[in-house]
């Protein structure tokens, strides 16, 4: 994997104005949004508001269409428990959000691009705070970068912007980074780019000598799927200390291969599959709570890639069968029965 990123970008160089579609309600949240404007509160000028009589009238397909159409996020300013039309409006709205987030994930979009909160007629400050959070979010961009991804991280006084890909062609990273920067309003004209390959441990290079043990990036111990290195730096540091304290530092390469190297082999295979077929992997993996929980355990160093692959292979039939039964239950008995089927299976699996 190779990465490319500009050196420190000042916050002043960020001109990214997020385009946010807001669904509000005529009687409850509209006055709160109007109050934010009349009080001269600051939020993105890229906000577009559509007013409806009731939050439950929103269709999940509208949200997916908005994201595909170029909006960076969708915010539902719901009535909460104050809806004048339906006593269960908030429950219905929660179901709409859940369905819309599933559509977003299946379409290769982040579910976090949709948010909902109850906004009352005097809730000007909460509204502006929710809108500002879209601009402060961490953005991972998949699908637009061949065999890789890009990121935009806001920090206290600058932006972290970059791109990474498996075996990129000459100039491909530069062109991809320019596209991402243009889309998110990041000025790169005066920024100096820095790129380098991310080392991946393949047991080809020596990681120990008679007087030194290499750990972390120096040993090629970056994650083959994400390129992240802090977790493996800590883990290899512990293994190095273990080998030294045992009086057998020569055993360090074997410990690395046993605890990290074997997992790297499986991780490389999974990375190849994901970056070559990202939309398929998003559609089948991201909504699957068994898989998302396994990845969370891996990032916390509670699981490794062989276990994740077992989770993928083992849970996929269960997930597809559950979703099929849930869809049938929803068709026959409504959304409550559909969600009941899902909760029975997914309870304890992260969903």
Count of alpha and pi helical runs: 11
The total count of strands amounts to: 10
List SSEs in N-to-C order: EEEHEHEHEHEEEHEHHHHHH
Ranges with pLDDT <50 over ≥5 residues?
A: none
Query: Helix fraction?
Result: 40-55%
CATH topology of the domain at 13-139: Rossmann fold
Supply the key terms.
351 residues; alpha/beta; Rossmann fold; six-stranded antiparallel beta sheet; four-stranded parallel beta sheet; 11 helices; 46% helix
What would a concise description of this structure say?
Helix content is 46%, strand content 15%. It has helices at residues 29-38, 60-68, 89-106, 124-135, 172-183, 230-245, 252-276, 278-285, 289-299, 305-333, 335-346, and strands at residues 2-6, 9-10, 20-25, 47-52, 73-78, 114-118, 139-142, 148-154, 158-165, 193-197.
Descriptive account of the structure:
Among the domains are: about 1-10 and about 150-195; about 15-140, Lumazine/riboflavin synthase (Rossmann fold). About 45% of the residues lie in helices and about 15% in strands. It is built from 11 helices and 10 strands. Strands 1, 2, 7, 8, 9 and 10 form a 6-stranded antiparallel beta sheet that branches. Strand 7 and strand 8 form a beta hairpin. The longest helix has 29 residues, at about 305-335. The mean pLDDT is about 80.
Chart the SSEs and their pairings:
Blueprint: E1 2-6, E2 9-10, E3 20-25, H1 29-38, E4 47-52, H2 60-68, E5 73-78, H3 89-106, E6 114-118, H4 124-135, E7 139-142, E8 148-154, E9 158-165, H5 172-183, E10 193-197, H6 230-245, H7 252-276, H8 278-285, H9 289-299, H10 305-333, H11 335-346
Parallel strand pairs: 3-4, 3-5, 5-6
Antiparallel strand pairs: 1-9, 1-10, 2-9, 7-8, 8-9
Helix pairs in contact: 1-4, 2-3, 6-7, 7-8, 9-10, 10-11
